[in-house]
Amino acid sequence: QSLVMKLLTNALVVEKQPVMSSLLQRPLILKAGVRFTATVRFLINLPEFKDLLKVTPVFDKDVEAAVKGLRLASCCRFRQFNFVRDNSKRLDVDSPGGGLAAEFAYMDIKRKTKAPNEQSHVGVCEELHLVTFVTTFQIAGLECNIQVSSLPVVVISSSSQVCSAWASVMWWNMLSPSEPWNLSLFSNPPPLSWQQLSQVLSWQFLAAGQRGLDENQLLMLRDKVGVDPEGLVYWSNFFKNESAWIWIDGILDLIRKYLVDLWREGHIMGFVSRERTRVLLQEKCTGTFLLRFSESSKEGAISFSWVKHSNGEAHVHAVEPYTKKELEFMSLPDVLCSYSVGSKFRKPLVFLYPDIPKDVAFGRYYSSDLQTPKQGGSGYVDRRPVHVSLLPLTPHSPTMEMNAEPETMELEQWFEEMISDILTLPAPP
Amino acid sequence: QSLVMKLLTNALVVEKQPVMSSLLQRPLILKAGVRFTATVRFLINLPEFKDLLKVTPVFDKDVEAAVKGLRLASCCRFRQFNFVRDNSKRLDVDSPGGGLAAEFAYMDIKRKTKAPNEQSHVGVCEELHLVTFVTTFQIAGLECNIQVSSLPVVVISSSSQVCSAWASVMWWNMLSPSEPWNLSLFSNPPPLSWQQLSQVLSWQFLAAGQRGLDENQLLMLRDKVGVDPEGLVYWSNFFKNESAWIWIDGILDLIRKYLVDLWREGHIMGFVSRERTRVLLQEKCTGTFLLRFSESSKEGAISFSWVKHSNGEAHVHAVEPYTKKELEFMSLPDVLCSYSVGSKFRKPLVFLYPDIPKDVAFGRYYSSDLQTPKQGGSGYVDRRPVHVSLLPLTPHSPTMEMNAEPETMELEQWFEEMISDILTLPAPP
DNA sequence: ACAGTTTCCCGTAAATGC
DNA sequence: TGCATTTACGGGAAACTG
């Protein structure tokens, strides 16, 4: 009997499914009031247990017990939750393997009315909770109690907290192999080595955009995150106030939603400082550009910088970053394709750094050719947005006369274009 | 006593407040599960009633009674709802007038589990319900019951039903002066005269954009709505399947959100057929344009049409309509300001019909001048979207050679522009 | 007053009912 | 099956609460 018990104690395995559709890659975060699904599997293939194992999910089971017992008023406690319905289910035969399993669908937790001593000193996303599945059964006249718990779970009340909750999950994931499971981990969170953290960060990008971070990108992030002389990163620096994580998470979201293709193909250098951008570009020929993430926007935004040589000097310009809202309307490849400068609408972007012709890198993603107007049956004239900048130096600004040289160049270019246009025009009849 | 009773019977007046913030101008629509507020006022200024009048809101009070009494199984019934909490309140002194009043905040209805005979043959937005406020009190040993009801209320479960619900409210409003209150109005809805309907429609535009509909606009709508030979409009034509109302409501929403200014100032002709647009514009000089609502989009969209004379022929073009989603990014005035055509980015819009220079009509709403690049401290180059169309006839399309004449014109214009540009350039040093 | 947290609720999408 | 209606829930904003 004792052997059976021991086997059973470790016999249930929990596979958690996502809380929300947008959290497909983010398990271990539960939003109160939003349904989630978990599957419990009985690993010992004994058909005689069929219909014997009635499993009940309990939220924060051991925490309850501990509080009811010894340390009732001794310390502050986490928020308390419970399941809104009775989700008990009997394990049944699982089609493929023949083992016993049950899918707990429509699980849904609700916060209990706050207890008087329920005043945690960590943020809600630093509370770690557990979902435990318990079952009691008789075998050979003996009563057995077995149970299995989920990995630690962060409970949020609004989707605006997903970003913070995910930071906790990452931190916990990196520490769990070395530390014993400790639900109060964040009351005194141990630091991570940059070694460890950089690896998790790279995984995030792999998950979001099918490509991790390269050495240069990680070097730039290392500066942002704040690594101490011993190569350690502290939780409070990584996550708390105006931290690097919120910025990085915004960019992950940007990639997931609008830049998967370009990120996967490595066309986005992304994490590169403004200064380094200048250094890289000024060596390259006019029209060379690169894509980098805005360092100021917490929402995730992407800009491009390009170089223009005139008069022996290299000028590096950077466009106002594009936000998610803008990319919803026009894909980044289309922006790059049509971006124009000056009153003559010249195209300043030619080569993706180091030297890939723009259309080779992005051509396959252009939504359609500007040169072939759509003739829909609708009778409406098709149109498309073109993003245009007036650089500080333009032919029409007389206040800039001290910079007359580049203007002369523009004028020359313009005549060239004009001649070329005339040559391609059909001859008047 | 009888006099007092009679006075009291009509003594309570209900002032309903909006269900939802976006329904500020749309009372009489309640969404299940969304809180609303109502104020009940006791019109007789007798301070001795203070704290005597405990008023309770009841949903569909008389309907309940009628059903419990006689016609229980006789006919189909509307959906049933009730208030989720006890909202009883005592009337108290109302600060300004000194009269008795109470504000019922946090009222919230919930659908009852469906009764077996609850199968109405009208749509949910055609069911008319009532909120009734009842009070019982003793005066001089006599028990008095008084009550007052709201105007009929449409109960919806999703904000996607607001459009349909509002159609019912309008129809009811136009009929209520002549018909006795009838909650089953829509089981056999009487027609409205076009006279009446056109007035309500005009009011909708007055409410949404501070300007009603003029005669020409109403004439166009008359055709859309479908008026019978006797000048009557039937509910089923106005509202049911692919009806005019859904289209009109989309446009009202477009105006409310993005076009209030232009609509108020009468710069949007809006309701004008494509044919009439052609007739109006071809008489006018090149560059004259007008704004009209898309007739095909159910979502509310606006297009502009302009005329170009070349070779003695008038060509009227219309741009692909702008949707709400697009106007969120770029205001219509900015679109009009920057809209360009052809590879030379010429501006085809000059005069708002009949002859108002574009900048006079829209200039004050341009978000900023394209000619003065913003020099933010951010170090980023400002940019803005310009909408560009390639008309079927362009200098670069050799397949169009039979229309060579307009191209020659374009070429001439282009040289003119070039000369003018050269003249305004600062002289090379 | 304020920041962290929760609630509210529109608008869209998906699910459900009929 | 298709349409009518309801439910689900992300996302932004307001409201709450210490």
TrEMBL record, chains A, B:
Its main location: cytoplasm. One of its GO terms (molecular function) is DNA binding. Residues 263-386 form the SH2 domain. This is Signal transducer and activator of transcription. It comes from the Eukaryota. GO terms for biological process: signal transduction. One of its GO terms (cellular component) is cytoplasm. Belongs to the transcription factor STAT family. Keywords: Activator, Coiled coil, Cytoplasm, DNA-binding, Nucleus, Phosphoprotein, SH2 domain, Transcription, Transcription regulation. The lineage of its organism: Eukaryota, Metazoa, Chordata, Craniata, Vertebrata.
